[in-house]
Amino acid sequence: MGIETVHTGDGRSRLRSYLPLGAALVTVVLWASAFVAIRHLGSDVSPGALTLGRLLVGSAVLGALLISRPRRWPTRRDWPPLLVVGLLWFGVYNVALNAGEQRVDAGTASMLVNVGPIIVAVLAAIFLGEGFPRRVLGGTVVGFAGVVIIALSTSPSGQNDMWGVVLCVVAAASAAVSMIAQKPLVGRLPALEVTCLACTIGAVACLPFAPELIRDVDAAGGSVIVWIVYLGAFPTAVAFTTWAYALARSTAGRLASTIYLVPPITIVLGWALLDEIPPLAALGGGALCLLGVAVSRTKGRRREPRARPAG
Fold first, then answer.
1. What is the pLDDT of residue 206?
2. How many CB atoms lie within 10 A of CB 10?
3. What is the rounded CA–CA span in Å between residue 102 and residue 37?
4. Where are the alpha helices (DSSP H) in the chain?
5. Distance CA 183, CA 178 (A)
6. Segment 187-210, tens digit of pLDDT
7. What is the mean pLDDT of the chain?
8. Average pLDDT of 4-29?
9. Model-level pTM?
10. Of 178, 169, 177, 170, nearest in space to 151 by CA
11. Could you give the count of Cα atoms lying within 13 Å of 226 in the half-sphere of its Cβ?
């Protein structure tokens, strides 16, 4: 009986150790699908209107999930970082990304946004005291090299413009700053509550886009509504919650490196759904992205102290 109990405990402990990674992977896949959905809707819905529609749906889904659970009201010190996350990540990030994807393709946008982990690693070292672990830095460099290769190979001349690039970099910086602000929050508050409050703050900030949303939805029809509901329910409500859950159980720099998985997944989805065929070099860049994530998430072996000779 004792042996069985030990094995059961070890199995549960091992399962719990994999849950943050599983949550991060759910986030990565859903965020990758968001790039494709945003690109698909770009000609029908304006950037601000799409952001408001997505956040309204996300807030409604999160609120419905939260209403039946015990809640812990944020303290006074929690509100400044909540406002930062809500305004920057749910507001500025989405508007900038939506506008950027009207000027650059989905694959390129996902590459440009992936300068974010570099910013996160630096900010986490400065403000969260996470330091610069060699494996995280090495994985970040390898993953970023993959991003550069994909960006160069999926940016045909004449299809992308400088404003699109600038907007995607603004989105990346907004997300990076928000991740740093969110890290201490998810240590004090439940992930679902943090996500719901931040999403609601972003939705309130985007209410001036309501007339555009009504006009665009009325002109575009039912399929656009389905896509907006998808963006709000899955890449927003689900993905941001699973991200907050993983962030509470990992360092910001290490977790941010998993975002390098977004570009190769986006390219595959764009190939399948938007008929955008990636060049061969992009596949090599995607392999580097995967390698970068693997390097950053491995732990170095602890050196055992050498036994001193007797006498």
1. 98
2. 10
3. 12
4. 2-41, 47-66, 79-84, 93-100, 106-113, 116-127, 134-153, 162-188, 191-205, 210-220, 222-231, 239-247, 252-256, 262-273, 280-297
5. 9
6. 899 989 999 999 999 999 999 999
7. 82
8. 72
9. 0.80
10. 169
11. 4
